[in-house]
Amino acid sequence: MKYEVLPIVAAFLGLATAAPTPVAKNALAFSIPRAMMRREVPQEHSHNRFLDGVRVNLNLNNPNEIQDPVFGLLGDAAAAAGAGKITNLDCLHQATADQAFTNAKAAGNVTGQSDALLYAALERNTGKVGLASVSCNETAVNPEIQAVQQHQDPASANAATINKNIVLALAKQLASIGADPQEALLSGTFAPGNLDDDTGKGNTCDVADDVEGCIFSQNLLVDDATAAEITAAVAGIAVSSGSASGSAVSSSAPSSGEVAACVSNEQTFTGTLGGAAPPVTSSAGDRPFTVNGNTFVNLAAALQRSCSVQNTACSNAANAGTLPGTNVDALTGQAAADAFNSALGVSASKMIKRANANVQTFTGSLGGAAPPVIESSGDRPFATDGATFVNKAAALQRSCSVQNTACSNAANSGKLAGTSVADCNAQEAACNGAA
Question: Where is the signal peptide (predicted)?
């Protein structure tokens, strides 16, 4: 989105070629001094969380020698410095996503595949506010990547419709690999900039060391669609049997015993005014709690939804006169709050058991142990190396990546005699495999 001035292209080229070799796998080979950044509006670091995921998976096997995912989000002139063997710069973005997806799929890593799809949908930098980017004219190896297009500058022609369609197409691909289709919204871009703004600034941000990405931390993300529209778009989409490294997906239904063993109802509230609260089922996965078809990361939010659904049903019945003597106002008072707190309290012991547990089980320690992945409660319950994550797989992947960077740096500096960066990469692959 927006323009990039020639001095910055030179800075990219000069600093990239001047970097010492070899370079740690997960470290960029350059650093742009802020004083040189006269283009005021780069945004290639706005979604850092997805760049990090793609970076890890790209480097598992990188035959085209793409230097870093960040180059795929730059304009062609700047992108050339890190394109490796990719000569069609309009397709560097797609090629990066495609290779990362291929590697993640081979490893059976759904989170890695999801990161690659989300990265493929990110907006590229262009020359000015309102200028759409050029689409790749080559066919991706993976049909999932081929189905996803990059967001366009929100001030460009028909951007609202185009970007909405991009998000809905992305949601379908996420659903097809078993990822959360609602995360398609996270690929969105900024509010439209002013077409008369000759600085090219728009409504962007670019903070290289913002772990999650400044579009999230600064609350600048604009949703291109609603949650309901995404739900409707993915209705009926089945998870592809090839999404986990070609492993077969059983078509037989689980037995009642198997269901009882892996699913339990966490809703213990017994009030039945207007009908019982819908069950809160707990199973495995990154969003393990389900109420009325909606999934949640943490138990508290799921229980709250269950109580809210019950309240809606009760209120509707009271208003319709099918619950004689029932006052709707009574349902929203202290008694209702007490009922919810009571229901939540019954399951508190289960939440406490989950809290503050290290879920990183990989024991390899070449160059140092992988940092712990601490699980607690909240909307982003997994934390590692100062960053928080919605799902465990992404947090474990970050932990493995941090270990790999430390190992690669130690190997490059000679502090690990007899150890090469390739050994560190092999350890990271084992770490991701354990996750």
Answer: 1-18
